[in-house]
Amino acid sequence: MPSSRQRSLRTWLFWAVPVLLLLTPLATNAYTQFIINGMLISILVTLGFTLVIGNLGQLAFANTAFFGIGAYASAILSAKMGLPWIMTIPLAGALGALGGFLASSAALRGIRSYYLAIITLAFGELMRWAYLHTKPLTGGTDGLPLPRETMFGISLSDDTLKFYIFLAVTVVLVKATLNLLRSRFGRAVMAVRENEVATASLAIPTARVILTTFIWSGFVVGCAGALFARHVGHVFPESFGMLHLIASFAMVLVGGLGSVLGAVLGAVILTALPEYLRAFPGMEELFFGLIVAAVLVAMPMGLASLLRRLSPIFVERYYREES
Amino acid sequence: MLMQLTLGGFAQGAIYALIALSLTVVYRSTTVVNFGHGDFVMAGAFLSYVLVVLAGIAFLPAAVLAMLAMFVLGVFFSKGLIRPIRGGPHIGLALMCISAGYILRGIARMVWGREVLPMPPVFDIEPIFLGNLVITGDAVFIIGTVFVLLVVFFGLLGLTDLGKMVQAVYQSPRGARLIGLNVERFNDFSWGVGAALGALGGILVAPISLLHPDLGASFLIKGFAAMTLGGFGSLGGAVLGGILLGLAEQYAGAYIDSALIEITAYVVIVLVLFIRPHGLFGRKAVVKV
Questions:
Q1: Which among A140, A176, A264, A307 has most CB atoms closer than 10 A?
Q2: Rounded to 5°, angle at Cα A59 from A55 and A61
Q3: What is this model's ipTM?
């Protein structure tokens, strides 16, 4: 456990990172800025995912669905209903949270482990089918472009402006998740993962804990979806398929299951690398597949487990090293 | 019309049954659900394509070779990647299976790119006309192969010592170990059998559909749907679930809307899990504290 001096150092470090990041647009070109924006989105996706599979310990693969719901919600609300995009972020988050509620209702009906994995996979694929077959709303295979928009007189296609908005959303959501995990509620989440029956016997409402974690995960990932819609400017059904799922797995695992710091690290590392592989068909799948297999065998608790050995500053209380 | 749909449903259902059965074989002996199984099916189909079209081998020997190759792959997957993380959480095992599937898919896509490959027709049998009913060679061949295979499979399980060993390992791996069964090797063997049976599913579909690296994903979901419907862990249930799913797809597609064919499996999964989670023949899950 870190000492109080180390804890204040940690808080200081936490805020230093985004403040320093404010300067990045000075040192980047349009392409690197685009990649960095993508990293911020991946951080949120990975964070939402690790909450459910790492912290709560449920085999739920619905996060790709939450992501798609958020992105389509944002695109539809701004393209068809004329809402300003910035307003669609919380709404997309709310719809993602609704998706989380649906996924958790399966978990609460006693559908667990493999059954939960299968039903959430089916949920994701059903959503993709829905995007393809509701053409008037989603544009089907052609996808849905986001309208041109300006904020403070700057076009929203400007990557620097997007960067500041994305950074703000990411920092708020990461900090909120950290606070949530540090609370009494966070302890309950960990207790449910370790032993649900024992947790219930301590008069902790396990059903409510599971429900809330799913909803928060859906909210975070739904917001990420709204950012993603603006990031690429045009949502397609293919963006929310299986490749996105394996990429999120890889990010969660490389960083460390159930670690917030790990989610950030995994997302940052694995967003940049595959950009170079995109030109070769199949390489991305092979790459992520090999990474996940290698991490599972050689480093099951990910990079976060290495960092915490380096310095107590990186110790997260609700992240378990031994499996 | 109804008869034609039923025949088509049986042919599709036979393949789903095979895939669900191969998933169940692995699940029963190792308690691992192979989330990469669709890609094993795809790999079987691609291997048979390579052997038939590129190496010029006849279809039947090519099918046997492809199944053997997939058996070996399954055994090595079990030995090399599943065993090291056996004791760990289930989530790791599920992720390992998924990543293995992606590796296979990535390899297929690297070799074939984004092409869609047609397999030359293998069953050059004249269709038989019975009144309005057209019985194609494919349907006869698929249903016949799966039927023979099921007879052999259940015969082996029910009548031989091997079948008793399978049952022993399923009921209690620890007890099986105590009476001198090599459970580890048995698990490797099950993975091999599962991979080979799944590959056969792919081989049977190959001549009647187009091959592409994403072939597996839909078969995985269909296998799951069949397995869920029949009841997790029940071998007979997997077969029956597969046939019922095949029929349901055909009927829903013809009588309601053809777009429904793709999502029948998902709907089945969701409905079964919400209404009767242990399926038709599965054992009710009992939580032991």
A1: A264
A2: 105
A3: 0.82
Residues in A touching B113 (Cβ below 8 Å): 281-282
| CA-based nearest residue in chain A for residue B279 | A115
Name the minimum distance, in Å, from the CA of A118 to any CA of chain B: 7
pLDDT at res. A121: 84
Q: What domains can be seen in chain B, in order of their start residue?
A: 2-275 (1.10.3470)
In a domain, A25, yes or no: no
Would you say A69 and A239 are in contact if contact means Cβ atoms under 8 Å apart? no
In chain B, which residues have their Cβ closer than 8 Å to the Cβ of A242?
217
Domain that holds residue A61: 33-241
Cα dihedral across residues A128, A56, B93, A251: positive or negative: positive
- Taking the model in full, what pTM does it have? 0.86
Mean pLDDT of chain B: 86
Closest by Cα among B132, B143, B257, B131 to B208: B143
Would residue A24 count as lying in a domain? no
Q: Residue B134 is which amino acid?
A: V
Tell me if residue B116 falls in helix, strand or coil: coil
Q: pLDDT (tens digit, 9 = 90+) per residue, B92-111?
A: 888 899 899 999 998 988 88
Q: Tell me the pLDDT tens digit for each residue of A246-303.
A: 888 888 888 888 888 888 888 888 887 777 777 777 788 888 889 888 888 888 788 8
d(CA B103, CA B231): 29
8 Å CB contact between A303 and A254: yes
Segment B107-157, tens digit of pLDDT: 988 888 777 777 777 666 677 777 777 788 788 888 888 999 999 999 988
Alpha helices in A134-194 (DSSP H): 135-138, 159-182, 184-194
pLDDT band at residue B284 using 50, 70 and 90 as cut-offs: low
Number of CB atoms found within 10 A of residue A283's CB: 16
Which one of A119, A202, A295 makes the best mutation probe of the B interface by having the most chain B beta carbons within 10 Å? A119
Structural domain includes residue A264: no
Residues 6+ away with beta carbon under 8 Å from A240: A64, A65, A67, A68, A71, A124, A127, A128, A131
Reported as a single tens digit per residue, the pLDDT across B153-171 is 999 888 888 888 888 888 8
Count of domains forming chain A: 1
What is the rounded distance in angstroms from the CA atom of residue A260 to the CA atom of residue A130?
32
> Tokens 């944002």 correspond to what residue?
A74
Check if the beta carbon of residue A143 is closer than 8 Å to that of residue A128: no
